Amino acid sequence: MKLSVYNWLCVLMLVMLTLSGCLKDRSNKDIIPINVLSISDTTAVDAVLQFDTLTVRPDIKEALPSDKDGLVYEWSIHQNDSEDAYPVYILDSTRYLHQAIRVKPGIYRLIYKVTVKASGVSYFKFFNLKVINRFSEGWLVMEDVAGKTDMSIILNTDTSFHHIFTELNKDYVLNAPVQVATTNFYGAKSVWMFGADNAIELEYTEMTKLTDYTSWFWETPPVFHPQKFRQIDDGTNIMINDGLLNVRVAGGFPGDVKYMNTLPFPGGKGDNYYFSSYVGVGPQPYTGEKTPYSAIFFDTKSKGFVYLSGASLIPSLVAFSAPEPGSYFDMRNIGMDLLAMDQGNAPFLNNAIFKDNSNYYLYQIDGNRSDPTVGKKLITGDAPELAAFTKMTSSKKLQQIYFLVNGNIYLYDIPSGKARAIKAIAAGEQVTYFQCTGDDVMVGTWNGTEGKLYRYRISPLGDFQNVKVFTGFGKIVSMTYKAA
Amino acid sequence: MKNINRLIATAILYLLISACGKEERLMYKEPPAIYFSRDFVLPDSINYTFVVKPDTVLRDTVYLNIRITGLATDADRKFNLVIADSSTAVKGKHFDIGPAVIKAGEYAIKFPVYLFRTPDMKDKVFSVYFRIASSDDFAAGFANSLKYQIRITDMLLKPADWSDFFYGAYSLTKHQFMVSRLGTTAITMGTGAQFSEIMSILQKMRVELIRYENTNGPLIDENGNRVTFPAI
């Protein structure tokens, strides 16, 4: 067989490659055994409440035992339920994890990284972790802390967490707190916070700021001093802003839904009115109730009531009819200053306290009666001490009213007209919040440095039978219950 | 065998060399043309009203979107923008236009049409019909994109979906009052307002009308009726 030049070249190349494999290895590389780690764990949990402390104690097996400084630890966490870029939070650099988990609720991956210093090789252990909303249900407590707003929550376990607003909204400041409220529009829940000249909406689960009031109106009011916000039925919010009424109606309409411009006062007064911040709520429209008085307002200029008619496509403020024979008073013309009003012991019953010179009157208004006047009583006749009251709240179960008078809580019995002191406020404490919620009367106090909340449980006869005290607040301004 | 190898080597060599050939590009070879650029937000007409402008505004400008086909050139080119005889707006009185030129290097322009506010617009709507025709530099482009209409007025036209239920009986006086207080002609869903916004507009109009009447007395419309807004 005769080999061609090409074949000779191939043979020559193979010979050269074979010979090159016989060269002596003169490199300084060597195979040195390294410390291989094996990480296992039986202590981690699958879920943790937000702000709870998470403890994980993994077991590390080392192929080559090292001293305590031979390993470097790192605990980190990142969200694992989003396709968006997620931040990685470094939690700690300790052998074991024992840290409060402050990330927002969601699905996360917890990463344990152990690096062998000698070799620089890192070993990982991954844990799936669900961070659960701690604030799903409880009492939201709005506080004034040196003129700024903060908020606490009291869980149903009676555990309270403070500074949740400032903790979760570090970049936002809300001045001079006015009111906190929650709404549920056909399942869409929100938390609303109102300050003296601003207002924001919080995401219901995460409690972080979503929007502010400038996006809530079709035409943002030139002056924004919110006094009262309330959801009066499934689809209607009302807001009294600088004495004027704005209404937001939702419910099956196409397009965006926002607050309407100021509603005009009936009788050709336009916007020449100034509502007090007390709102009486009547029945929802279209539910077979007896009246169109879906909400009742008191005008401090005309010193009379008007109502928000819910029985129309577009709500309007409407004047009450002239009093009927037997009416206790003329809703259109009370002629006195309204000092306070609160829901009484029936869903649409409102107890209003008026002052006429030195006389104080209780007017009872039932929004579910065509003649809403259901009672009138001179309360300072048999209970003259109530003339010095500064706050009131009505029992939701009995014909009774709690008055705060000179550091004492008085229980006023409406049928008998008698009042008696049932509780003294602690010396040095000033009451900043006073509200009956049904089973309890919530009393927020301020001693100059700390706010306290007393939750008095009401006995079947209306007295206070026990108290639970919560401490560590700012000056309590407003409260609302946040349902799950 | 040796011949087969040579043939294969020759074929491979030919393929390699042929890959180096210059590509003949597929180029646009049609004569240049011009047309009104239209899409969903640029329809073939526009309604312009001075009524939402302050009284001091006596002229304004609207722009026609015009595009060419073919390549831009390094010299200015003229196009033929014809004002149809059917136009009721008078050039020089109600409107005017500049030179119809596509400048060097440009593929699309916003062609300005200057509108003039005149007293006769208070009760009339004037129309100008533009049509693109062929010129020395451009052929007329797409047949369905050669016409554009501008309607100019200083008055309001009743929205087709005006609802007496919300705003009461229509009158031009009421319409003008609404637009002057709102600063927009979007008062119905057909004119751009949303349903919730209509609720808001009604409340505002009821307040604004009372303010007006407190200063000026009742607002009487062109039919001799007092302007009112319903409380629904």
How does this structure look, described?
Chain A has 484 residues and is mainly β. Chain A has 3 helices and 36 strands. In chain A, 5% of the residues lie in helices and 49% in strands. Chain A has a 5-stranded mixed β-sheet, with no helix packed on it. A 4-stranded antiparallel β-sheet of chain A has the order 12-11-10-36. Chain A has a 4-stranded antiparallel β-sheet with strand order 13-14-15-16, with no helix packed on it. Chain A starts with a helix and ends with a strand. Chain B has 232 residues and is α+β, with helices and mostly antiparallel strands. Chain B has 4 helices and 11 strands; from the N terminus they run H-E-E-E-E-E-E-E-E-E-E-E-H-H-H. Chain B has helices at 2-18, 164-167, 172-182, 195-216, and strands spanning 33-36, 45-49, 59-69, 77-78, 80-83, 95-97, 101-102, 108-116, 125-133, 139-140, 147-153. The model of chain B has no long low-confidence stretch (mean pLDDT 87). Classes of the chains: A mainly beta (484), B alpha+beta (232). At the A-B interface, loops of A face helix 4 of B.
Care to give the gist of this entry?
Chain A has 484 residues and is mainly β. In chain A, 5% of the residues lie in helices and 49% in strands.
List keywords for this structure.
heterodimer; A: about 475 residues; mainly beta; Immunoglobulin-like; 3 domains; 4-stranded antiparallel beta sheet; 3 helices; 36 strands; about 50% strand; elongated; B: about 230 residues; alpha+beta; 2 domains; 5-stranded mixed beta sheet; 4-stranded mixed beta sheet; about 25% helix; DUF4843 domain-containing protein (chain B); DUF4843 (chain B)
